[in-house]
């Protein structure tokens, strides 16, 4: 109960922020997939901290050390294990953390859940650092899905209240998604980016943080993947997306905007384009009845502002039973949304790869 | 792959809209829970169609016929099966459905997924009618959770663009949730209801439909239920909430509104109230790091407008390959949001009951 | 936790011996499989009680009432539910059962497990009657596997100490398995049958019971189905075979006889027959490293003697705390091995169908 | 699909015989369990090769390098990962292995299953070496179960045809099981051991191998653990026991001997001993209806003779299509039964720990 997910492909994530290492086992990954090291390391780099002043100044190489599952540069079909060593931790005052759990964090709930035995340093197993192995697994899944014609990408839809231009949901070229992957900050509208960076900088100066939204798309999916009810594409994706720390909302297609639409505007009219059935609009985000319809899969997730902020907060001291000031020291991101894009893509890639294996078996 | 969900409590839903019957098996339900028939039938009635002019004029008793799992009015611990017979179907033109899949429905994706063998009448296994067994299971889970001090309830947060008063997320009396259950329409603000009903009526007259949002809460949950990463309370809940047809978005606590918040406002300050740790605000909706913190669990789901509308739509005829007019006849809801509240509560109750059993074992 | 099994195909069994009905939901069954009613009813009949004096004199039609999952005589891909009504129960003295749990039965462990709430009448959910829905599901799986070239069959390997001729494990024609299915008692050697029936009659006259062994085979399986370690063909099969009440041992190929073999005799030499790789012997029962090798799959299960015997037994009265005589009245089988063959085949068919779906996806 | 197992506790095993390393992730392990390094290393040593002339002369330290899940010598409740580096491999002729798959091994089935991409060196992921991480996980589970009063142990029941004295199934002191753990070879009858060692030596001189049976017991289990049908103690145990390479049969209590018993002898009479319900015999091996009854859990597994033998075998060359001689070089065990005891105990400990967590929740 905790860090294992999947059916045809099963992942098991381990590690704590200040332990020896973190990593992942990927069981059921297809055999014969070629390892593209540059691609995988680029994905890791996109998530890694310390790359610019919008993110924490901790620098961690986050190089995955592969233990198994590869031979001659190809997957063997056996479980893949990769480890990322923890090399740059500075453990804070452990006792202080136990006395005064940080607001918005899992410090308190973790203590209750694990009877006070959990590793609180750096958030332990609840740390955002645990998304690094997820990105590794996502990179492998992307490599495999690419051979099946599927491309996954994302952009920062918003930071603070500044909105990027959303995807054109009926026409997203794979090249657009690939280009976003190469950008320092994945946005569709460069001017929105300037305003976003300014908002982050403003929060940083106020020793505060800001949240945002990531919009993610997958193109090239065939129609007919997924199942009704409990194993819908949306159920599967949301169950792994909510595994990403700080995600508090997930929506598909028009999402919450559906609430204000009428059926006549919400319905996506079908038409035929050559031999392919398409829809004129894509309010359903590529999914009807839980099953892909061949249109781009579109989803958005909300990322809450980093709870670790330097500004003094008033919060409970469990030892005194009183509310007292708390100053969180250390190196924190004023905004993790810029680093979240590859993580959301990874969760999406893993869920889709799992659905693909279910749909296609050992093939 | 499809209609089975759960771990400590497992549900398996079956049935098609126009088949002999629909129903559910609930495996792993606790022994010794007393059956409150009036409570269960009231839950079924809340979801049932035909109760007022806002919903479809089909009338279905939806009486669960219990096959197993009870003795002397108590659960035995063995799997519970209940069947609801289909008695009031009028099958439309089956061939027409196969030729011209309805926009916004699963007709097309179902045909691809099941190689043309799926039952298209009334949506078959994709029908909203399949939420009736979910409500039955949810009612049993509510009965059990009630004995553990947990109460679940919901209200219509919005229909069209009309907003109800949201829950006071740090203080929701169980009596408020119980009262909402008894109401014809569960709203906190009666004036909002009038406007909602007018908006529904307007859509009905236009042969159209409208969507909305349900806000659901669970109070009385102890801190420490749930797990990090893949088995967070949010992951578990979302995976069953997205099983409800028409749900296209799920958010917890402040949800998507987090995107515009700063950390200093988003963080929920902890304090002590007697022996209980509470938070002054509840932006995290009762969950930190995937684990309950003892505050009310708050979530919202978006319900898209019913895709079945009478107004003529232009859409693909698969036989001609051309876009042609489609008129959907039959008895449809102009707004299913009013009937969705007990369904969302049921999904929530099942997920929480499952987490409770995991947390407490056979006890 | 209890009566749900499977991954790509999931079954959920419900019911209690003296409740309203028993049945099964089969989720994930392939679409487009034609229902052969005569075949399914014949399978049900093979297991049904009351057919001859070797089995209990209760007569139950065991007709599956199909609720869902079929249209125009074909599976739709939606979950299949079938119910078998309980019509011929005579409930014994319930209080007596609670006071004096029957030796060899689940009466005592069921009471501990379910805090005294379980239905003890006729064994409740622990009853051998719960194998009827398993046979129904197995019959459907056989029908599907037959379209893939796979045939499953079994014979009574032994009753008491009388041995039937085992299968020729490198050459089992599908016609042999089909013929066993049609026989009143599935044996390879008719003379062994006479001795078996005499042994059963002897036990019946002594108000006692006897056990035995079923040998089951599947032919036509391709090489390459299954996975190493936790998802071996043996793991999967054993996990459902031990779900059959009274099964206390499972072995594959040479099984326990391997203990006395040397490697040079145990190893199955490979050779090529046309384009097919075969083995000269089949000590591994068609499975190497958990994966099928294309040779017949061979397994044997031990069925313990029916614990329900009429002869007076001495056993604990929980109310007095003393060992007292117990006479179990009612209509019991002196030997259930004769009825167990279709049950073992059904478990085998379900497990193999599940593996096939995993291997081949939605196809 | 492959190397992940469990529900409340989930294990995921990775690694290939000649890769960088092998290991395991254990998710859901209880928090607060003290690490007894000497105990764990002793368990690893019991399984390790090269300790005497009955086993392979490869020497591997098999030291688990713990990556996560521990703090201050206690489990934190987060996933535990341990890695065992591969340090002493000598890769044989890879191309030869692909051409001439070894009889009795997974070489051929692995190639079919993984489209020729699997690592054949040393058996790859199918290697018996993969039982080392299982033993590590089993050792931790034993440590936890010990705090709950449960002790697990085993002895060599037979090698070749030489039988050890079986356990007294109604009275197995924990001290007996502990003593077996300390012995070089776990047997109840030292004279049987001499004959066993002679049989192994004889096989070794003939460049051959021999098989055997392990009998395993767990004492101190409370009544009421497990579930009927699909989640019986037997189903759960067998599903992980058959994950151990070379296991081809599993039986509980009297097992296959039940086939020759009458019900009146097979039934275990209940009686009361103080406040405890016991049975006078234990033919059911501590399990009725899939649920523990408080008596010792008894099971036996058959271990087939090591298929890797030095004596020349005739077998198919896939390149020529002809049967040709094969000589397997390298360092092989003439009998792995002596090393199998801790592996079987480990599988048993993991399955029981998983059942315990299900029964007791987070407690």
Report on the architecture of this protein:
Four copies of one chain form a homotetramer. The first copy, chain A, starts with a strand and ends with a helix. Chain A has 363 residues and is an alpha+beta fold. Chain A is globular, with a radius of gyration of 21 Å. In chain A, the strands form six sheets. Chain A has a five-stranded antiparallel β-sheet, covered by helices on one side. A five-stranded antiparallel β-sheet of chain A has the order 9-8-10-16-11. The first copy, chain A, has a two-stranded antiparallel ribbon with strand order 5-6. The mean pLDDT of chain A is 94. Chain A contains nine helices and 18 strands. In chain A, helix 1 (37-47) runs antiparallel to helix 4, helix 4 (131-147) packs across helix 9 (337-360) and helix 7 packs across helix 9. Chains in contact: A-B, A-C, A-D, B-C, B-D, C-D. Chains A and B meet through helix 3, helix 7, strand 11, helix 8 and strand 12 of A and helix 3, helix 7, strand 11, helix 8 and strand 12 of B.
Topology:
4 copies of one chain form a homotetramer.
Chain A: E1 4-6, E2 10-15, E3 21-27, H1 37-47, E4 65-68, E5 70-71, E6 74-75, E7 80-85, H2 94-99, H3 107-113, H4 131-147, E8 151-159, E9 162-163, H5 174-182, H6 190-205, E10 212-219, H7 233-241, E11 247-252, H8 263-266, E12 270-273, E13 276-279, E14 287-288, E15 291-292, E16 297-303, E17 313-317, E18 322-326, H9 337-360
Antiparallel strand pairs in A: 1-2, 2-3, 3-7, 4-7, 5-6, 8-9, 8-10, 10-16, 11-16, 12-13, 14-15, 17-18
Helix pairs in contact in A: 1-4, 1-9, 4-9, 7-9
